[in-house]
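Methods — Computational structure assignment.
A single polypeptide chain was analysed. Its primary sequence is given first, followed by the predicted tertiary structure written as structure tokens.
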Amino acid sequence: MRRVSRIAAAGVATAALAVSATACGGTSSDAAGSGDGKSKGVAIAYDVGGKGDQSFNDAATAGMDKASKDLKIGKKAVEPTDGESDADKAQRLTELAKQGYNPVIGIGYAYAPAVKEVAAKFPKVNFGIVDDATIEADNVSDLVFNEEQSSYLAGVAAAKATKTKTVGFIGGVNNPLIRKFEAGFVQGVKATDKSVKIKRQFLTEKAEDGGFSSPDKGKEGANGQIEGGADVVYHAAGLSGQGVIEAAAAKKVWAIGVDSDQYEQKALAKYKKYILTSATKDVAGAVYNLTKSVQDDKAKGGVVRADLKSGGVALADSNPEYKKMKDLQAAVAKAEQDITSGKTKVKTTL
């Protein structure tokens, strides 16, 4: 995956990880061996939407697959169930720890209560949680990202690409994490062109109502914004974002993807012409790096934050049409430089 980020090393690492992402669903397990005997391998517990979302969960899959291959260790991934409780999540993590997997990683902030509970019971097992920084434990790594920074760049790109002077934002669930995406996007749009109107919508108030797992909801939301004049729509909606991209392609307007470089996702290939760019975050790298640190006996608990400067978040430039937009590229490059230098401070709330 090619990215606007100037951190070459980070870009190469993410490229290698993105290639290994897969599109099929289901639980995966691979007894690839126990490596040096330190653990059975790496295990991940998927967030809402599961494997095959072409976004957040698939990025985690890519990191797990690469770690298994490079480090010659086993791997296992387990799917969520509809309407599950924190107790269900805790039971899932407990079983993975008992089976000998290390690290055990919860993909998504919803795992916070379960990770906190189970990590206390298995102090010799390393746990990770993506998108939550509330757990303070020696054996828990909080893997978090400055999503607002890449969303700011998405806002700059949207403001430069729109011809109707109207753009849209579709958030999966109205929560603090997704409001970070919204805040960065809105700030980026307004910093680029104050005259551009921004239509905003959250699909649901709660994750259990399908905000991250319902392409039909994403499609309906995007259609409403497009009918209202938006010709660029940015989603932060997980699996629901596939509906946003489908709607944009049907109306021949731009979609902006999230988390993974969605232009490169095979399951979205028939829509790729209309995926202008994606605001990416290196969940794959976070999963891989934590797994390697466990294998190297160097794992440490605490917050592990990835930002634009480190290459942990970025804006993809895989679409050839994006590369033809020289004015847009220049504006994004300038915005990136201003953020990494500290000149521009991106807000996490509106």
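Note: The chain is about 40% helix and 20% strand.
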